């Protein structure tokens, strides 16, 4: 009974509250009107709404006309020749021939009609056609090709309205926004992809930029620009991993390295690089060196003692010398440990190559090396790398 009495008490006061609310609605209707006393704000159609410019469209509009598409065609080869084996475009049947056709991109670097692209884009090329963003096509001639850096310099008989000058210095940093501009094979028109600089490193004869701005076949030789529209690299290649999903890594040759190559191609038609004449597996790995040179346990221990005197990881052990090469003529010997070149510390063979990659033949370099327990210095005049 007490429960029923409690429920009745609650119901009674709910009914009283509802009655009071009804009286307010009857005698004060304005207070409960659904009409808003303020004028209703009408939404403007999207097309009539002023838009603020965002992104990098203005910058890209200035730089993209400097980037072109390139079509490079080889001479005709007989169908039964060894050349007709890959990457072919067959000519009409009556010619009984084939030809190579490469597609790539290029960048105007001055107002005189010079362009840079990748050397592999011009492989076997006898005819080179440059297609501007406007659709105009121009014939180009080769000024010079450097296979080692994969850079080629070509020229058209026209003055471009837009170009991207090659910088003297490299001020790009990991984390910078970058834009890759080029003409992939799969597209009819120029494309722009965006990313950041993921890494920077030296390989063979050039410094490289790794970026997550996507590259595809046909982007080779295109432009990598920063957020200010400055040329920071020439797009070169991409790699693909087939592990679950496709992961692409894209690379560009640092623009001021390209400037060095272009300068030599203009002056000499080729790039002349200095050469030390060292050979073998130059490392600081004791087991690898011992195996390569066939060291006795005593010799291996002596080398271990010498390596332990150096800061961890510093130095490379000479394991081979080219006879009559610059290092041989200067008196360097196997098991000498090179620690510095021109006062720059050396930690691996890449450091050694990087220290001399842009030095021409006959340049003198100062080599610091360890022989026995002695630290020595020797000046070596570079030869020419073949």
Automatic annotation (TrEMBL):
Gene3D superfamilies: 2.30.42.10, 2.40.10.120. Keywords: Hydrolase, Membrane, Protease, Serine protease, Transmembrane, Transmembrane helix. It comes from the Bacteria. Coiled coil: none annotated. PANTHER family: SERINE PROTEASE FAMILY S1C HTRA-RELATED, SERINE PROTEASE HTRA2, MITOCHONDRIAL. The keyword Iron does not apply. The keyword Transcription does not apply. PROSITE patterns: PDZ (PS50106). GO terms for biological process: proteolysis. This is PDZ/DHR/GLGF domain protein. Residues 281-346 form the PDZ domain. InterPro entries: PDZ, PDZ_sf, Peptidase_S1_PA, Peptidase_S1C. One of its GO terms (molecular function) is serine-type endopeptidase activity. The chain crosses the membrane at residues 6-27. Belongs to the peptidase S1C family.
């Amino acid at each position: 009974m007490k429960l029923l009495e409690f429920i009745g008490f609650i119901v009674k006061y709910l009914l009283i509250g509802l009655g009071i609310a009804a009286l307010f609605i009857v005698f004060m209707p304005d207070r409960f009107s659904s009409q808003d006393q303020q004028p209703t704000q009408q939404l403007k159609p999207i097309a009539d709404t002023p838009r603020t410019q965002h992104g990098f469209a203005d910058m890209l509009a200035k730089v993209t006309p400097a980037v072109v598409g390139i079509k490079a065609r080889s001479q005709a080869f007989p169908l039964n020749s060894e050349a007709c084996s890959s990457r072919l475009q067959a000519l009409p049947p009556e010619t009984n021939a084939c030809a190579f056709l490469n597609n790539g991109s290029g960048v105007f670097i001055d107002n005189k009609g010079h362009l840079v692209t990748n050397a592999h884009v011009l492989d076997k090329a006898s005819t080179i056609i440059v297609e501007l963003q406007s659709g105009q096509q121009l014939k180009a001639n080769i000024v010079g090709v450097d296979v080692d850096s994969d850079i080629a310099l070509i020229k058209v008989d026209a003055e471009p309205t837009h170009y991207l000058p090659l910088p003297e210095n490299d001020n790009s940093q990991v984390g910078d926004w970058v834009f890759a501009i080029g003409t992939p094979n799969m597209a009819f028109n120029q494309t722009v992809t965006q990313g950041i600089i993921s890494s920077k490193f030296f390989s063979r004869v050039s410094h490289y930029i790794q970026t997550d701005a996507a590259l595809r076949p046909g982007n080779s030789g295109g432009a990598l620009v920063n957020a200010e529209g400055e040329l920071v690299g020439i797009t070169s290649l991409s790699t693909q991993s087939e592990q679950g999903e496709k992961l692409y890594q894209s690379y560009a040759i640092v623009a001021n390295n390209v400037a060095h190559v272009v300068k030599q191609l203009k002056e000499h038609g080729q790039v002349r690089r200095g050469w030390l004449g060292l050979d073998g597996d130059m490392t600081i790995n004791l087991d690898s060196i011992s195996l390569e040179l066939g060291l006795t346990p005593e010799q291996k221990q002596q080398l271990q003692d010498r390596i332990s005197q150096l800061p961890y990881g510093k130095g490379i052990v000479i394991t081979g010398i080219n006879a009559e090469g610059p290092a041989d003529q200067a008196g360097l010997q196997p098991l000498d440990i090179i620690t510095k070149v021109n006062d720059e510390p050396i930690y691996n063979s890449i450091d050694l190559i990087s220290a001399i990659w842009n030095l021409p033949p006959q340049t003198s370099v100062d080599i610091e090396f360890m022989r026995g327990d002695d630290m020595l210095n020797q000046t070596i005049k570079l030869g020419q790398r073949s």
